[in-house]
Amino acid sequence: MRKRLAAMVMAAVLAGSSMMGCAGSGEPASTAAVEPQETAPAKAGEDGSREADSGIKSDVTYTLSFWHGATDDVRQQMYDNAIARFNKAYPNVTVEQTRLDSDAYKTKIKTVMGAGAADIPDVFMNWGGDVLKSYIEYGLVADITDLIAPYKDEYYDFEFGISTFDDRIYGMGIGIAPSVVFYNTEIFKDLNLDVPRTWEELDTVCARLKEAGYIPFALGNKNKWPGLLEYTMLGVNLGGEEMSKGLSDRTMSFDNEYFIEAGRRLADFSRKGYYPDGTNGIDHNAGGSRMLFYNEVAAMFIMTNGFLSNCVAEDAEFYEKVGTFPYPACNDSGEVGIVAGGNVFSISSRCEYPEMAADFLYYLTNADFSQDYIDAGNSFTGAKDVRIEDPLVQEQFDNLIKADWTQNFYDQQFVAELGEAFKDYTQALYGGTMTPEEVAASLERAAVDCYGPLK
Predict the structure, then answer these.
(1) How far apart are CA 230 and CA 339, in angstroms?
(2) What does the alpha-carbon distance between residue 292 and residue 324 come to, in Å, rounded to a whole number?
(3) Which keywords are on file for this protein (predicted)?
(4) What's the angle, vertex CA 160, arms to CA 155 and CA 162, rounded to 5?
(5) Do domains 2-177+340-398 and 179-331+414-451 have the same CATH topology?
(6) What is the SS3 assignment for 50?
(7) What is the pLDDT of residues 361-396, one digit of tens each?
(8) Which pLDDT tens digit goes with each residue over 201-218?
(9) I need a surface site. Which of 56, 323, 363, 455 has the fewest CB within 10 A?
(10) pLDDT score at 388
(11) Number of continuous H segments (helices) and E segments (strands) in the chain
């Protein structure tokens, strides 16, 4: 079974996962070049370098290879700024960048990972989850837990959520993308609706909205992954963090009471008309669901923070009406988990100078870099001490840090085949072509095919 998993990972890594890269799914709020902020050196030494204890010499020239998938020139400028800051601490290091678009990057990283560690760049971008875990199991990725200890306190815990396995850290997150409920504050005000804090209150709000002539949720699910967001939110908030861990380590079946109940609630919302008619035929990627929200046909919209950049670019006037809240608690404990994913930068296990590479990770994710990210694209890393002036971005940040725990997107958390199954079966739930019980059982069969039976 491990051989089967290895073949799947190396042959299909990152392929077919529409939600991957959601942190940057929206267009940047600005296309202007991002000016570098003042450098805050890593805490490894007075100048940020580690010459004293790592064997790195100031009179020797070094090269550090760095692969990433910057999707636009604005993000490329952010990386260039980070490298400039890094070079203040390491002026004798040349960072050789390889920038590829999304599809080309997926192909290239798949090829080098399949070939083994010799061709893996020193620092490379990935999406965390089980694909990263598989790289770790095959000895391709460095454990950076101790390497980043000097500056770990400069980050919130969610920075390391999708790259931590068995309490060891194998990457640093960038472009953290929390998924929340966006809502039209004016509609809520006109109808005297309060932000719901429980699932029962959400059901009541939806009923009131429908009665007033609104579609409660904008949803274009032709692309499958948008609908998976709510199914995941329901599942994680019903089953809690314990279920999340159980699914990942294969001690809990996907055919469990929480996922069945999540499917029942989703199917119930669908029967009540809380989503647009023909939701599985509406193209989210073409803007179909956003148009329902902008035109005030729908009052709420479940999406990642990539929506903020979309909204600024597409309907800046409507942006002033938008508020956010986390998907409400679904269990008696009142705990709220939030679905959030993003990109991860990891270090090759063959990197000759991992301390230097770890310091480079710092400059790729620290508060200075995060400030660039916020100013240009309304996104952020897990770095503390950033200045957020946009109230909506602040709400997103607060939703994330106040959550009791976070769950990665399921099509990033698990291997691509299982991620695709999640999207297919979720679409069937919205369409009413499969029962919640059938969906949960089918997910478990897919999990067995990918990972083997329960432990």
Answers:
(1) 9
(2) 17
(3) Signal, Transport
(4) 150
(5) yes
(6) coil
(7) 999 999 999 999 888 777 788 999 999 999 998 988
(8) 999 999 999 999 999 999
(9) 455
(10) 92
(11) 18, 11
Q: Which ranges in 55-181 belong to alpha helices (H)?
A: 73-89, 102-115, 129-137
Domain 2-177+340-398 = CATH 3.40.190.10: yes
- At 13 the pLDDT is 34
What CATH number has the domain spanning 179-331+414-451? Answer: 3.40.190.10
Give 115: exposed, middle or buried? Use CB within 10 Å, 0-12, 13-18, 19+: exposed
Q: b/e per residue, 339-355, with b = 16+ CB within 10 A? A: bbbbbbbbbbbbbebbb
Per the structure block, which two tokens stand in for 6? Answer: 């290895």
- Taking Cα atoms as reference points, which of 393, 377, 386 lies closest to residue 31? 377
Give how far Cα 265 sits from Cα of 113, 178, 217, 384, 411, Å. 40, 22, 14, 37, 21
CA–CA gap between residue 290 and residue 319 (Å, rounded): 12
Does residue 181 contact residue 326 with C-beta atoms inside 8 Å? Answer: yes
Compute the mean pLDDT over every residue in the chain, rounded to the nearest whole number: 85
Q: Considering the entire predicted model, what is its pTM?
A: 0.80
Q: What are the boundaries of each domain within the chain?
A: 2-177+340-398, 179-331+414-451
Q: Which residues pair with 94 in a beta bridge?
A: 63
**Token pair for 402:** 């106040």
Q: Which two tokens stand for residue 55?
A: 């064997």
Query: Is the per-residue pLDDT at 3 higher than 90?
Result: no
- What's the pLDDT at 214? 98
Is residue 304's pLDDT more than 60? yes
Helix, strand, coil: what percent of the chain each, to 5? 50, 15, 35
Of 296, 300, 292, nearest to 323 by C-alpha is 300
Asked whether residue 95 carries a pLDDT value surpassing 90, the answer given is yes
Q: List the one residue out of 221, 219, 171, 183 whose CA is nearest residue 342.
A: 171
Beta 215-218 vs 298-304: how paired, if at all? Answer: parallel
Question: Between vectors from CA 382 to CA 380 and to CA 383, what angle results, nearest 5°?
Answer: 95
The residue with tokens 């529409």 is: 18
Separation between Cα atoms, residue 218 and residue 285, nearest integer Å? 13
Separation of alpha carbons 147 and 143, rounded Å: 8
Residue 54: the pLDDT is 54
Cα–Cα distance for residue pair 249/113, rounded to 1 Å: 23
Tokens of 172: 């640093």
Integer angstrom CA distances of residue 236 from 228, 328, 339: 12, 11, 8
CB 26 within 8 A of CB 377: yes
Provide the residue type at 37 as one letter: Q
The whole-angstrom separation of Cα 55 and Cα 355 is 10
Going by C-alpha positions, the residue among 37, 153, 217, 156 that lies closest to residue 398 is 156
